[in-house]
Amino acid sequence: MAETMDLGSVSRGFRAMFSMLSPNESSFEKVEDVPPYVQQATPFFVGLMVLELVLGTLKTGGSVVTISDGITSISAGMISRLPTLVMRGCELTAYMYVWDRFRLVELPWDSAWTWWFTFLGVDFCYYWVHRFAHEVSVLWASHQVHHSSEYYNLTTALRQSLTQQFTSWIFYMPLALVAPPAIFAVHIQLNLLYQFWIHTELINDLGPLEWIFNTPKHHRVHHGRNLYCIDKNYGGILIIWDRLFDTFALESDKVIYGLVYPIRTFEILRVQLHYYFYLWRKSKYYKKINNKLSTFFKGPSWKPGKPRLGDHSNNPKVTGKEVPHDPSWPLHLQVYVVVHFLLVLAVYHDMLSQLTILGMTGYILLTLTALGYIMDQRPTAAFLEMLRCVIMVAMLRFGYMKPLLPSLSVPTEVRLRIITDPTSSSAGSWMKMYDYDSMEKQSKFICVLPASL
């Protein structure tokens, strides 16, 4: 029986990745009964990314993902989920508040009609979440994170914003007047999971499905910085909304991915926050209050005298010969970054109490920032990484991370030794390599590149 249940769980988890669950198996009366589909999808994320890597290598003769870009994308995904570790998601919290106080009708939670209505409602609302995130600069400041990669692969799907969830909930509130929260909690997860597999270049035309569903072919256009790709194909699961509202474009010329003005960095906090600083600087150029406000609430390309969304014809020309940002860096640093990234990834999945979560959230942010500095080859990377390693050694030695270690057959003290010894060595190595005379001088481990926040 246990084996059958396990197989059933695997089947449901895999089908959830493609929003292929039936109403009977995914309708719940209470929000507390809704499975954490996104959390349970981690093995499928990993499996599909490995499969894409293998098939991509066989098909193209090269890798479809680089270490630097892949780690940056996964790091963004980790950061985007941190708020949900200490509180329920903003979308669901706000949704339940409106439902409890202002609902107009109470559709039956166990009706297939309610399930399908909510499916369409969530996808329709997501279209507008997504469209506004491109057409309103202050919302684009959060969403640009997802578009910052110059590659297009399954790790790109995980490159999510820390701040977008704090505004996206607004667009789902009309649905909260009629659709039960538990059914909404199902579909908000399934809608997100569906969008994972469409981030690949390995799948081409899917025939008649292209008319109704969002597919890799359609979503590649959305991620392009070619002129014909800008502000197109916003759909989540369905592409019909784009066809209805005239935001649809077919893939034609070779798609060049990334931001119109690439940021060319792997430092995760800079990826997350740089556009907010840009908007602030841009607004300071204007003296009129209406121009200052327009900087934040009109399109990213807007300037005084231009339409609401600006003039995209002034964007840098795309030639099709653009090369993604992938600076060369020593193999030993690549191994170092991967090892320490895997360590913090293990910590991320094993956080427990609220107090531990808050402390470890800070440590995770410090680690991902330090690894980004290394990948960017910044002069100050050695100092920051030395500091991070010292903090981790102290946390391990004083037992603050013992509750976070996975329960394996190996004794805890052995696991501590396995992690602590290389971390201590890392701290010592960075300490020896760092030039204390100036934080702006070149570390013997790090190549100097012009990089600044």
TrEMBL record:
Membrane topology designation: Multi-pass membrane protein
Subcellular location, record wording: Endoplasmic reticulum membrane
Chief site of localization: endoplasmic reticulum
Domain Alkylglycerol monooxygenase C-terminal: 333-414
Catalytic activity: 1-O-(1,2-saturated-alkyl)-sn-glycerol + (6R)-L-erythro-5,6,7,8-tetrahydrobiopterin + O2 = a 1-(1-hydroxyalkyl)-sn-glycerol + (6R)-L-erythro-6,7-dihydrobiopterin + H2O
Family as reported in the entry's similarity comment: Belongs to the sterol desaturase family. TMEM195 subfamily.
Function statement: Glyceryl-ether monooxygenase that cleaves the O-alkyl bond of ether lipids. Ether lipids are essential components of brain membranes.
Protein name per the record: Alkylglycerol monooxygenase
